[in-house]
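Subject: Interface between my chains keeps coming out wrong

I've been trying for a while to get a sensible model of this assembly. When I model each chain on its own everything looks fine, but I need the whole thing in one frame so I can look at the contacts. Pasting all components below, labels as-is. Any help appreciated, I'm running out of ideas.
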Amino acid sequence: QKEVEQDPGPLSVPEGAIVSLNCTYSNSAFQYFMWYRQYSRKGPELLMYTYSSGNKEDGRFTAQVDKSSKYISLFIRDSQPSDSATYLCAGSTNAGKSTFGDGTTLTVKP
Amino acid sequence: DAEITQSPRHKITETGRQVTLACHQTWNHNNMFWYRQDLGHGLRLIHYSYGVQDTNKGEVSDGYSVSRSNTEDLPLTLESAASSQTSVYFCASSEGAGTGENEQFFGPGTRLTVL
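Reply #2:
Try treating it as a single job with all components included. I did that and got this:
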């Protein structure tokens, strides 16, 4: 079993929709949780970074972490065609090494 | 501006040849990582380093080696390239263990084809 499992997708939504991207993890030592966005033929870029449980909001993006159920979510409000990309979740211990999910490819149609 | 660069961006080589992929970061980060990304497998960790002279194996380290002689560089060497090593390779860096700054910054990637 992988340490981080991500809903595989692909996901296709109309512009303006609310998008929910989800991951589960098995390593109880994870304290840091990240979401990365990767456009085609580019390197991943950090989108959201969360420590421990709770919510974090940044514009149209909200990251949620529930450590009791080992569940990580990313919500995108008012989705735009420019949000079309692959989204990777990741968990990390204090040591610095991260474990990534396989990614969910999102397409937002105008 | 601080950045992380990779070279070459594209490489075609033949089976059995030694290949070295360069990674250079100007963030002054202690941690550096090498990943490969293949369809259906996401990002898989090859090797990583927590500082100068420190190297560690990741989940797919067979056939690869790294060395860390300074803070800025972590070159990845394929000792004898195999067709199974055709992939996109990403280098990343992060500030350091215990700092709480675990977010990684990625380079643009190297697309390697082994014929």
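Reply #3:
Confirming on my end. The mean pLDDT of chain A is 93.
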